[in-house]
Specification:
With 170 residues, the protein is an alpha+beta fold. The chain is 26% helix and 29% strand. The protein has six helices and eleven strands. The strands form three sheets. It has a five-stranded mixed sheet with strand order 6-3-4-7-10. The model is unreliable at 1-14 (pLDDT under 50).
Length: 170
């Protein structure tokens, strides 16, 4: 895998996203992968994995939930689903429900299907599934549909200030 770092390596098609800008500013190594998004995909993450030829357990989806009324990010492999009870427990809460897409978009600055855990408009509490620790690199949205950023899990955890816990099902 060729890794690129810095602002030049973080730009895709000459256009950086807040996610790639945040990664470049942090000085981490990353690779940006572009693909043609399927407009009618049932799962943006699964479609990205298929388009890039990457196993579904290496691409992580960024989901926004409300934990006791506070927006919280859960990051899980696209091969599974978010366990809301586990997310609530990991975030120190009692009850979690998926956030309304409009609220997720407003808080993160990204559109659904392109929500990145990096470079969000407002930094939200974040929990990443523990399966991330077994991987050399992972892919997350780079801030728009059709763009993924590949990073080392430790860098993803550090840049998001995340807690790592078992929050995925399946």
């Amino acid at each position: 895998m060729s890794k690129r770092a810095g602002a030049g390596g973080g730009k895709a098609g000459g256009q950086g996203t807040p996610a790639t800008v945040a990664a470049a500013k942090a000085g981490i190594e990353f690779t940006v992968h572009a693909y043609e998004p399927a407009p009618d995909a049932e799962s943006y993450g699964a479609a990205a994995a298929d388009a890039l030829g990457v196993p579904h357990d290496r691409i992580f989806k960024t989901l926004v939930a409300e934990v006791d009324g506070r927006l919280t990010v859960g990051i899980v492999p696209v091969s599974g689903s978010l366990d809301l009870k586990a997310l609530a427990a990991a975030a120190g809460g009692k009850k979690a429900a998926m956030a309304h897409p409009r609220d997720a978009e407003r808080a993160t600055g990204y559109v659904v299907g392109g929500i990145s855990p990096l470079g969000q408009r407002r930094r939200l509490p974040t929990v990443i599934d523990a399966s991330v620790s077994a991987l050399a690199t992972v892919y997350v949205s780079a801030g728009r549909r059709g763009l993924q950023i590949e990073v080392v899990p430790a860098d993803l955890v550090a840049l998001t200030g995340a807690t790592v816990a078992a929050i995925a099902r399946g």
